[in-house]
Amino acid sequence: MQNINTTYSPYNQQAEDSIVTIPLKSFAPKILLKKTGPQTGCLIYSIIFLIIFAIIRLRGKNLFFMLWNVILKKKRYELILNEGITQNLIYYFFALSLSFSALAISLTYLAINHFDFTRICYVLLFLWGWHLYCLSIITLCSWIFNLRIIGEEASINLWVYHICGGLLISPFILSAFFVKTFAIPLLIKTIVSCLILFYLVKLFRWIKIFLAYNIRIFYMILYLCALEVMPLSVLYRILT
């Protein structure tokens, strides 16, 4: 009986009398990268994001430490107001820009399953408008009803949660640009879970502030509808 040897070759060759040639590619399929968008644009965004984040970290005078103190409620807001917020204002704007860019990218991808630059810009402009709108309403109400203390604390919490919300999910957003296909669903679930949990913590903090200053339930509901529910409805329309 004739002995038949089997070998594996990366090329399709003609079979000889005693040799069976099998293409190697059929035994080693590739796992393609997820085509999430223009890889050059994703790489440029990632580099710019990391550079700005490093500048904030090095030059921001404990900015992230102060944000963490607000979230954990380690210090009263009067002390936080005096800890270099005015000097760090430009870095707060940079941090908020990073946060909103990450949120815009994640929300756009979750809505349409790819990175649409035009849609991302619309969402980014909406987030900035929402932030300025909330600050204006808080400032106006605190002036009309003579509630300066609660207005200042609400403004600080607004900055903190809007900055930390996007920075919290930014590592997963940057990873989604370059990971392989099988990791994308896990990243999406992680991003959604973080956003939902963070938003619930934000609502809980607002309610806690209102209760601490004996704000009526009617005004609490009015605030939540005007500054939380209505903007989310507008954002939903932009994404869909």
Summarize the structure in short.
By secondary structure, the chain is mainly alpha-helical. The protein is 70% helix and 4% strand.
Tally of helical runs: 8
Record the strand order, biggest sheet: 1-2
Structural class: mainly alpha
Order of helices and strands: EEHHHHHHHH
Largest sheet: 2 strands, parallel
Describe the structure.
This protein has 240 residues and is mainly alpha-helical. It has eight helices and two strands, in the order ββαααααααα. It has helices at 39-59, 63-72, 77-81, 89-112, 117-144, 148-176, 184-212, 217-239, and strands at 5-9, 19-23. It has a two-stranded parallel sheet with strand order 1-2. Helix 6 packs antiparallel against helix 7. The termini are far apart.
Keywords:
240 residues; two-stranded parallel ribbon; mainly alpha; disordered N terminus
Secondary structure blueprint with pairings:
Layout: E1 5-9, E2 19-23, H1 39-59, H2 63-72, H3 77-81, H4 89-112, H5 117-144, H6 148-176, H7 184-212, H8 217-239
Parallel strand pairs: 1-2
Helix pairs in contact: 1-4, 4-5, 4-6, 5-6, 5-8, 6-7
